[in-house]
Amino acid sequence: MRSTLSDAELAQARTAFFETDQDGSGAIDRSELAHMLKSLGQTPTKSMIEEIFIAADGGADANGNGKIELREFLCWYSKQLQKKNNTAHDDVRCTCTCTCTCTCTCTCTCTCTWY
Ligand SMILES: [Ca+2]
Ligand SMILES: [Ca+2]
To answer: Which residues have C-beta under 5 Å from ligand 2, the single-atom ion?
Structure first.
């Protein structure tokens, strides 16, 4: 694994992992992930969870055993940070303030991600 995390980011990621791993099993399962997202103010849907676990372009559950081990989590976390940085550079950060879920015909194309 090539780590692109700084020491501070690594420490942060480890903390996040152990906070999320509520039963201390050393791995994050789907319900633990859902709980973590909720604590971040997200409303995780089943597909959102699946997306994180098994996204085609690098899901967190790299070995497909249905759990995110620390190694997998760190790898995934660094990818998210990279994405975030790339996004910031491209200046396509979410600037839209429309949070409505109505079916109006506004053409808001906000691309913010779950974090
Ligand atoms: Ca666990
Ligand atoms: Ca796994």
So the answer is: 61, 63, 65, 67
Rounded to 10 deg, the angle between the 30-39 and 7-20 helix axes is: 110
Q: Rounded distance, CA 88 to CA 61, Å?
A: 26
CA distance 73 to 96: 30
Digit-coded pLDDT (tens) for 92-107: 444 454 555 555 545 4
* Number of Cβ within a 10 Å radius of residue 27: 20
Identify the CA nearest to 37 among candidates 53, 24, 23.
53
Q: For residue 26, report the distance from its CA to the centre of ligand 1, in Å.
A: 6
Q: Model pTM?
A: 0.69
7-100+108-114, what's its fold?
Recoverin; domain 1 (1.10.238)
Do residues 48 and 114 make contact, with C-beta atoms less than 8 angstroms apart? Answer: yes
Alpha-helical regions (H) of 4-69? 7-20, 30-39, 46-54
